[in-house]
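lol so apparently i was supposed to do this last week
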Amino acid sequence: MSSKKKILFSAIQPSGMLTLGNYIGVLSDLVNIQRNYSCLFCVADLHAITVRRNPSVLYNSIFDIIAIYLACGLDPNRSILFVQSHVYEHAQLSWILNCYSYIGELSRMTQFKNKSLQFSKNINSGLLNYPVLMASDVLLYQTNVILVGADQKQHLELIHDIVFRFNKLYGNLFVLPTSLASLTGSKIMSLLDPNKKMSKSEPNHNNTIFLLEEPSSIIKKIKQAKTDSDQPSSIIYDQEKKPGISNLLNIFSIFSGLSITDLEHQYCDKIYSEFKRDISELVAEKLYLLQQQYFDFRKNEDYLQDIINIGAKKARLQAQITLNKVYQSIGLPVKYY
Ligand code: ATP
Ligand code: MG
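anyway here it is w/ adenosine-5'-triphosphate bound
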């Protein structure tokens, strides 16, 4: 990796089938991003175990994500692609940073509150500490830029707080990361409840478009997506008053490369059903092409395993440098390999 480029970190947890939200938030612009940054892409499997999972489903979804990254254009010779649990330094730094994070600030996180409601029988401390592990993921690599979806804003603020707190005590040890909101910086919302974000762990699958979903099912779901009840129907962007159409306009804009204003003009005298027909066909067609690439990579698990072995080695070399600095700062002896 060229040392002149800024360091970019991004992660996806293997917590279910990848969605259109994940695609638009972090996967849709990978080719461009790799040109401009030294990139680390991580499958955040330690994050995924805050919820009880079937072991073989979890195992397979880790490889699914590796294959999707590659299908989206990730070049393993250019970027580091690795699995979080292979780089032990993440858990190690996370313990240390937990001792610099407060229960009050962690329990205020919207994601903690939502997941505590969703998994009310298993509110484990991992759910609470999740953002601290996320801070460790990012800070271990002296990341300049985090590629995250707009849904992670609150966690980013916590990372900033941890950096300020730690750096104030021990000097400028961690780089303060900024976020790169890819493309439009959109938060893609649920199809049937456009006030809620689209998520892989959402139990009602009609809310979500999955990247590996059959084209006919994608078309059906978009056609059923909740639109706004104003009459006559108008295809204009208004996040507050028309969250359903605004969400579809966001998606359409990203898949077509047209601006939202262009789309509003193009559809100014059209009805919702015509708009939905066009967007659903476009999304289904583009995802179908992505799926073909994905299946090519996914069938060769040995190749995927080689890639993550190499990725873990490269990532550990960088992670150890930061962790050693942290050890020295707080008074732990460094172990030399
Ligand atoms: P979960 O429901 O298990 O949290 P998720 O769909 O939120 O799953 P993550 O693995 O948590 O997916 O997130 C992977 C990346 O995708 C993150 O950078 C996140 O910001 C981004 N992302 C997730 N959902 C959306 C969304 N609806 N819109 C934009 N980006 C998103
Ligand atoms: Mg999430």
